[in-house]
Design a protein that fits this description.
The complex is a heterodimer of chains A (318) and B (284). Chain A has 318 residues and is mainly alpha-helical. Chain A is 78% helix and 0% strand. Chain B has one domain: MetI-like (MetI-like fold). Classes of the chains: A mainly alpha (318), B mainly alpha (284).
């Protein structure tokens, strides 16, 4: 197990270092200089040269990377060009707000998605199953921002129940805080829920067909015990991997959802940086978000190993 | 004597399921609408009728008008072109790069395979949307650029599917025979392996088209894809966000069109997979 953990950790670190190189190269080593993109229509050789000088882009590439990556390791993510403040505090605040969205979404998705999947599998071919697969198809096919708009229309404009944009600080009271979270979390949940429910259903169906489940039934165990104790435990393995993969979708979803609900999290911060060509901010956000995804994958791998002894003792599955 | 009536089970096997037929018809209609938008749309997509701005659905404007009095239906029809172009172009790019990589990795195995697959793992460990945004952010925006960025995203999954099918094919006699004949690498890859991997690639490709349309819509929704005044579904929905109380219909037609396109493409892809599984006798 220890060896496995070390292997996975090394792989994650490798990916993060590679990511930093990729992000850095994408913004520094392209044929069209970033200064040109930032200046847009006003790019002349003089303005480009002046901006490159100001951003320190004229120094050797390796020096630039070393400074940037070294700073990032010490927690210094540089200064934002537009906000003209150190990036780190702004970014961590935004990440914290997004983490609340993401964690709430993921929890709901895990609980409801698994429940829907189990019910659909147990009632295979019945109305519940058909309803669930119809919902899955729609959930997977309609983009988050359209759901978001429909929810805004329903809860904001017609029912006037919930705020449709912004962020409620805790000083404004727990009510305002939660109310601002409801619609964004709901929007994030819909697509992922379909994903998890679909996967749980298919892995449950597979497990329900195995010998040990039949044996458990033959021993006269009550149906709920067969489903929950014997089948579900094993059916959950692939679901856990998918939940970790969903963190990647969640990050993408968070960008769209925070934009539509004007929620000041890290997704909105990324769009802000991209729109204003704030190079250091852009790099910092992408680096941090990729690290988050890598860590999620790591947690999933370790959880998987804890739940499945075959992986603990066997060869690590790449 | 009456001819024996065909076995219902056999007929069911030959005919595609109803939902696939319906999906095909709907998708065909949407494609015709998108390609023929120039002739079918009641108005040019950028013609403004300032007097009729934010007008609800009526006989003159079946899906209402936007804040400049542009006809939402005409814009939705035109927008289909951009979405479909992006869907197919991105998938084509993903296939053009991913399939050869997958064939090579599956055929050569060993070090080539290991190196290629690890490199693709790195690309896949990026959150998908971030990779696309990164590519677009550092270059000027445009439809072709968006298609290329999404296409790159598709290379790893396409290569993986192709590789796994190729690995399966490698044990078959016709490959062993080709190698024994001393055929060149390119011959074995293109003439022997490729034709046999097509079924899996077609299914994978069709699901990719749906995904590309979604990613493209998110991009233009965020303002990094197609630029105004072009009529694009994502862009139209983004625009509608500001008028959601005054003119909710502005988002309805593009949103429905996009959802319908993605749903029908997914149903067709799933249907194709089931049909091919049946034909291959569940070999895969």
């Amino acid at each position: 197990m220890a060896l496995y953990v070390v292997q996975r950790l090394a792989a994650v670190l490798g990916v993060i270092v590679l990511t930093s190189v990729l992000v850095f190269l994408a913004t520094h080593a392209l044929p069209a200089s970033i200064a040109e993109v930032m200046l847009g229509q006003y790019a002349t050789p003089e303005t480009v040269a002046a901006l490159e000088e100001k951003l320190g882009l004229t120094r050797p590439l390796l020096t630039q990377y070393w400074e940037w990556a070294g700073g990032a390791l010490r927690g210094d993510l540089g200064r934002s060009l537009v906000m003209e403040v150190p990036i780190a505090p702004v970014l961590w605040t935004a990440l914290g707000r997004s983490a609340v969205l993401g964690a709430a979404g993921l929890l709901i998705v895990a609980a409801l998605g698994i429940a829907f999947g189990v019910v659909a599998a147990v009632r295979r071919g019945r109305i519940v199953d058909h309803l669930a697969s119809g919902f899955t198809m729609v959930g997977l096919s309609v983009p988050e921002f359209f759901w978001g708009l429909l929810l805004i229309l329903l809860f904001g404009s017609y029912l006037r129940l919930l705020p449709t944009s912004g962020y409620g600080t805790l000083q404004q009271g727990a009510g305002a805080y939660v109310a601002h979270l409801v619609l964004p979390v709901l929007t994030l949940t819909i697509g992922l829920l379909a994903h998890v429910a679909r996967l749980t259903r298919s892995s449950m169906l597979e497990v329900l067909d195995t010998g040990y489940v039949k044996a458990a039934r033959a021993r006269g165990l009550p149906e709920w015990a067969v489903v929950l104790r014997h089948a579900l435990r094993n059916a959950l393995l692939p679901t856990i991997t998918v939940l970790a993969q969903d963190v990647g979708f969640l990050i993408g979803g968070i960008v769209a959802v925070e934009t539509i609900f004007a929620y000041p999290g890290i997704g909105r911060l990324l769009v802000y940086a991209l729109e204003r060509h704030d190079l250091p901010l852009m790099e910092a956000v992408i680096l941090v978000l990729t690290a988050v995804q890598c860590l999620a994958n790591l947690v999933a791998d370790l959880l998987y190993a804890v739940l499945n002894p075959q992986i603990r003792y066997g060869r690590a599955i790449a | 004597m009456a001819a024996p009536s065909p076995d219902p089970a056999t007929t069911a096997r030959l005919l595609p399921p109803l939902r696939v037929v319906v999906a095909f018809c709907v998708l065909a209609l949407m494609v015709v609408g998108a390609l023929g938008a120039h002739w079918l749309a009641p108005y040019p997509f950028d013609e403004m009728h300032i007097v009729d701005r934010l007008h609800g659905p009526s006989f003159a404007y079946l899906a209402g008008t936007d804040e400049y009095g542009r006809d939402v239906l005409s814009r939705t029809l035109h927008g289909g072109r951009l979405s479909l172009f992006l869907g197919f172009a991105a998938t084509a790019i993903g296939l053009a790069v991913g399939v050869p990589l997958g064939l090579l990795a599956g055929y050569r195995r060993g070090l080539t395979d290991e190196l290629l697959m690890r490199a693709l793992d790195v690309v896949m460990s990026f959150p998908a949307l971030l990779l696309v945004l990164l590519i677009i952010a550092v270059t000027p925006p445009g439809l072709a650029k968006a298609a290329a960025a999404v296409g790159i995203l598709f290379v790893p999954p396409v290569a993986r599917v192709t590789r796994s099918v190729t690995l399966d094919l490698m044990t078959h006699e016709f490959i062993v025979a080709a190698r024994a004949r001393g055929e060149r690498l390119s011959y074995i890859l293109w003439r022997e392996l490729l034709p046999n991997t097509w079924p899996a690639i077609v299914v994978e490709g069709s699901l990719r088209v749906a995904f590309a349309i979604l990613v493209g819509a998110v991009l233009s929704f965020l303002g990094f894809g197609v630029q105004p005044p072009a009529a694009d579904w994502g862009l139209m929905i983004n625009n509608a966000r500001d008028f959601v109380e005054a003119a909710p219909w502005m988002a309805l037609a593009p949103g429905l069109a996009m959802s319908l396109t993605v749903i029908t493409v997914s149903i067709l892809g799933d249907g194709m997979r089931e049909y091919l599984d049946l034909k291959l006798g569940g070999r895969r």
